[in-house]
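ingest -> validate -> predict -> emit
validate: passed (alphabet ok, no gaps, 98 aa)
predict: started
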Amino acid sequence: MAMTGSPALPTLLFYRRDGCHLCDDAREALQAVLEERAAQGSRIPRVREVDIDRDEEAQRRYMEAIPVLALDGAELRLATGYRSIHRFLQRSLDAGLA
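emit:
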């Protein structure tokens, strides 16, 4: 039986900044969603945090909208709640899987 390689993990960008309590809340909610997805055997992305204070373009684009999650061209602005993050990842990661 031939083994196929698993598809590469997508990268979820988490735009945030230091001292942002909404960003801290989002990090906790995101962690809970990722742990639940992992426990269910669902796809999970790699997470790369982007500090908008260190990225001028990101700061210009997201200053009024952080925390922001971005995956494969889709964005979730003001991503602070468990439910909204869960739905976003479900739509982004599970689309087309059957």
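The chain has three helices and four strands.
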